[in-house]
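Fig. S4 source data, part A: sequence.
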Amino acid sequence: MIIHSLEWKDNKLYLLDQTRLPGTYVYLEYSDYLKVADAIKNLVVRGAPAIGIAAAYGMLLAYQNLSRDCQDIATIEKRFLYAADTMKMARPTAVNLFWAVDEMIKVFKNTTLENIYEIERQDKEICSRIADQGADIFKGKKHLKILTHCNAGALATAGIGTALGVITRLHQHGQLSCVYVDETRPLLQGARLTAAELVSSQIPVRLISDS
C-alpha cells in the first residue's frame, strides 16, 4: 500500500501529519490557507513536490474563502496576492512552492482555478515516468540491494515518489533483495518516513545507523 501525502476532498485539503510518523498515521483537515502555510512551515507536509501541491491547494482555499466573503473583484485580487506572499514565506527556499503559487496567480488572472488539478496530475505522471526509467537501468538484474538517504517517496510527492518510486517499481518487478535505509540525521526522515513507506508497501527494508 502506497502512503499518500495529501488528498483534496469535499473542497478541503487533507495532509498526512508527517511529524507524527511512523507511530501515528493521521490526516489533518484544512479549509484555511493560513493553516496550510503553517503546516508547510512546521513540516506537517515536506518534500519539494508535495509542498508545491499543498501550497497550490492552499491558494485554492484562499480563493474559495475570498470569493465567498467578498464580491469586489479588485479586493479579491489584492487579498489573493497577499495570500500568495504569505504562502511563499512559509518556506522561502522551496522552489516548487514558489512555482506552484506563481502558477495559481496566473490561473487566477485567467479567471479559473482548475489548473491545480493539472499540477497534481502532472506530478503523478512525472513520478511514474521516473520510476519506469530508473527501473530500466537495472533491467535483467535480480536480488538487488539498494541504499537510500532521506525521503524521496510518496510522502514527498503526490505520486509514487521520485527516487523511492524507482525502488517501488523494482519491487513490483521482483528484482529487489533488500533496501537499506539510513537514519538521515538530524530529522530522521529516513528512519521515520522512508522506512515507514517501505514497510507499508511490504518492501524488504533494513534500517542502519548514521553513526
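Fig. S4 source data, part B ends here. The mean pLDDT is 93.
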